[in-house]
Amino acid sequence: MLRAKLTSLLTLGPLRRTHPAACLPCFSTLSHCCLQPEGRRTEDGLHSGWRTVFYSRGATRPSVNVRSFSLSAAAVVNSAPAHVQPYLRLMRMDKPIGTWLLYLPCMWSIGLAADPGCLPDLGMLTLFGIGGLLMRGAGCTINDMWDKDFDKKVSRTASRPIASGEISRMQALVFLGGQLSLALGVLLCLNYYSIALGAASLLLVITYPLMKRITYWPQFMLGLTFNWGALLGWSAVQGSCDWSVCLPLYFSGVMWTLIYDTIYAHQDKEDDVLVGVKSTALRFQEQTKPWLTGFTVAMMSGLVAAGVTAEQTLPYYAVLTTVAVHLTHQIYTLDINKPEDCWKKFLSNRNLGLLLFLGIVTGNLWKERRETLLQQEEELG
């Protein structure tokens, strides 16, 4: 009896002294054991107790699930406190593609407005990044408040916080006020011209979610709203708009929005018919590709015009060629009847926008070299 008790103590002793970080095999020749959490957690998330579980030789051991570390937007939202998550999902923090598409025209404009040979103003890029995040969140909140009854009827949107009842309309309204107040704080950091110009966009932000009830061209209204930064970015840097640059850039952004959001709308066209809302996807139907091709030609024409007026250089036009090839391939390979393909093509527009920004920056840096060469030639002449 005493011998059996001593054997048991010798067997379990090392396990009691071992930190319970993982499932550990016991060195017993007769059995296997492992340490498992009892299921109780302390306030800091750690297990408050562990239990030893024995398995006979040959038995299948339980697998240990190790949560992988992820920095994706969805993972960040899911790791937030439970009462905060619905508000983060309301402003689409888990789906940052919309914020990128709002922010990119601002980046283009700030890049074009930089002095020759200089990088874009990092402070302005940061400020507009924060403003873009807040305004995109405000736009989504307004959209979901308007579309609560529609969203309930569509499987893809039924889980949105307002449609599902996680957030009431009154709570959303208060949250909207907070977002707009913070966005106003960002706007007030700019010059007076830009403050007035930015305030003028608020009417578009409020009304564009209603357009799908009225017209088959809600994507056009979205384009007018999402690309306002093409005007605001330049005025924030230069103090006012150079319309010969800003208008072509704004026009190109609107055409770009018609391209990517029409592609996006093809995912929902069946549900849109059922709930009675309109889109360019329903307007164009099987003629979508010719329309998108026309928008691409218009977009590229506007970008060339903006580049000429801004005295852009070779790297800019080289990147424009790449952008044109990307859009052509995107449209040619698009399958409007496969939602997964539409989503993939839609997402690719973020990289397209970043590529264009790279072309603007490198083209602007090239100006200094070109001007230096011209000056040297004049001196030698």
What does the model show?
The protein has helices spanning 2-17, 73-78, 85-90, 97-113, 122-146, 148-152, 161-164, 169-187, 192-200, 202-207, 211-214, 218-226, 229-238, 243-265, 269-275, 280-284, 288-309, 314-333, 339-380, and strands spanning 31-37, 50-56. The protein is mainly alpha-helical and 381 residues long. A two-stranded antiparallel sheet has the order 1-2. The chain is globular. The protein starts with a helix and ends with a helix. 36% of the residues are buried.
Euclidean distance between termini CA atoms: 109 Å
Question: What low-confidence regions span 5 or more consecutive residues with pLDDT below 50?
Answer: 5-69
Overall mean pLDDT score? 83
Order of helices and strands: HEEHHHHHHHHHHHHHHHHHH
* Strand ordering within the main sheet: 1-2
Percent of residues in helices: 55-70%
Q: Which structural class fits the helix and strand makeup?
A: mainly alpha
Global geometry: globular
The total of helices stands at 19
How many extended strands?
2
Strand content: under 5%
Radius of gyration: 28 Å
What characterizes the major β-sheet?
Answer: 2 strands, antiparallel
Per-chain topology:
Blueprint: H1 2-17, E1 31-37, E2 50-56, H2 73-78, H3 85-90, H4 97-113, H5 122-146, H6 148-152, H7 161-164, H8 169-187, H9 192-200, H10 202-207, H11 211-214, H12 218-226, H13 229-238, H14 243-265, H15 269-275, H16 280-284, H17 288-309, H18 314-333, H19 339-380
Antiparallel strand pairs: 1-2
